[in-house]
Amino acid sequence: MFSTDPVVRVSDAHIFQDNNTVLRDINFDIDKGEFVFLVGRTGSGKSSLLKTLYADLDLRLGDINVAGFNIRGINDGQVPKLRRKLGIIFQDFQLFPDRTVDDNLMFVLKATGWKDNGKMRARLSEVLMQVGLGSVEKKMPHQLSGGEQQRVVIARALLNEPLILIADEPTGNLDPEVSHGILKLFQQINKSGTAVLMATHDYPLIKKFPARILKCENGRVIDSAKEPFELITEY
Predict the structure, then answer these.
(1) What helix, strand, coil percent values describe the chain, rounded to 5?
(2) Hey, what long-range contacts does 222-228 have (CB within 8 A, 24 or more apart)?
(3) What is the pLDDT of residues 173-210, one digit of tens each?
(4) Which of 26, 27, 95, 229 has the fewest CB atoms lying closer than 10 Å?
């Protein structure tokens, strides 16, 4: 049965790093198929918020529901099931340097319970074509450009048809032209129905591709859909 529930619902949540409150009283939803930027100065809590959403940081106060999973009190057995419904993309790629692109993607499919070799091969080819990489399966990560490596990472994140892509500074190590290509790819993925939450410092990119913005500032998360604000470039 099709659900109209938001893919992310955050209610009165407080985000902690060790014993420090990083963000407090957070309330926002992200609907299926929505595109949202997450901005804020370094140290403002962006990464801590993202880590809480995919259950890498414990949620101690408030409620967060992601892809049908209650993050507060989620147990170790449920975390892999949650992450199968998410695509997580990091700035530093986190590809296995000693394995081909093929082996990097195959590892994820096997780790998330795929068994049929033919179906795995078909899915692998499908996601590489989707990100515009048709012939890199046998290459090692170091043989690819930064933009190509990031496209492999996005392909990896798409393998299990996630409800939402969570991207932490995915263009942080890329030049502007390559960043534009990655952003356009995110938009294509988004148009096919996958929600996208992208943390970024790349304000020119946001101005070029406007969307809803969540801003971490002074321990709060300000939502441009509720409190319009001017985006001032800040690093």
Answers:
(1) 35, 25, 40
(2) 223/28
(3) 888 888 899 999 999 999 999 999 999 988 888 998 99
(4) 229
